[in-house]
Amino acid sequence: MSAPKVLVASDLDRTLIYSSAALALTMPDARAPRLLCVEVHESKPLSFMTETAAALLTELGDLAHFVPTTTRTRKQYQRINLPGPAPEYAICANGGHLLVDGVTDLDWHEAVKARLASECAPLDEVREHLEATADPEWLRKHRVAEDLFAYMVVERELLPEQWVKDLAVWAEARGWTVSLQGRKIYAVPRPLTKSAAVREVARRTGALLTLAAGDSLLDADLLLAADRGWRPGHGELADDDWTAPAITALPERGVVAGERILREFVGICAGRGAGVGGVPGTV
Fold first, then answer.
1. Which pLDDT belongs to residue 271?
2. Beta-strand runs (E) in the chain
């Protein structure tokens, strides 16, 4: 029998794929990497990765169980056209939906909803608080995602830092967490985690080694649960100088960080990096 494949669970936005505003192409124009568009929305190109990263992701799909692991809703995730083999598993809504060959696992979803109902304040209470305290001067959109969590689109330069801090304190007392990512503020139930869904995928696949990557506070639990993790040089985790054992803080920022992360994944899965050899996973 062949050895179980490695499980690779990675955040997408600002980890593997990047909007034009997040590319961080700081090199001279003539040295900028060639880009591949991997998402179109309303007839406009929205997300990109380098062509080299696309080739690495294709290679990774043959070497490992690659699991896209995102806070995006299912509809938002399905707009993305990643290169390589179609993933058997994908995690959406920060762990609220586990997709198997593109279809929601209803048993998993119902179990998540039951846990949220028993462990934290209801979504309506949080949504009403956000609507009551947000200032129309900087609030652009307010959304509920998959009936699981809420997020707002804001004008970042007008957003008071103290408001975000006060919201985080208010939310924590109710079993929720707050994450500021670019122009979006997320309010997410604390038990709604990417790591819980990744543990389930690891159980189903029999993977003995789990690798992970992410850039935001909502990815911290995922990184801590993996055997090895990487974070780019941008994002909430980098801003907080967050690190932990078995976590590699990369210096690269923007789209080249996504390429570096995929190079690290492929190196380990192909036996070219440290960490190979059937190390039992902690996920």
1. 87
2. 6-10, 35-41, 44-50, 64-68, 89-92, 97-100, 103-104, 139-145, 149-154, 176-181, 184-189, 210-213, 228-231, 247-249
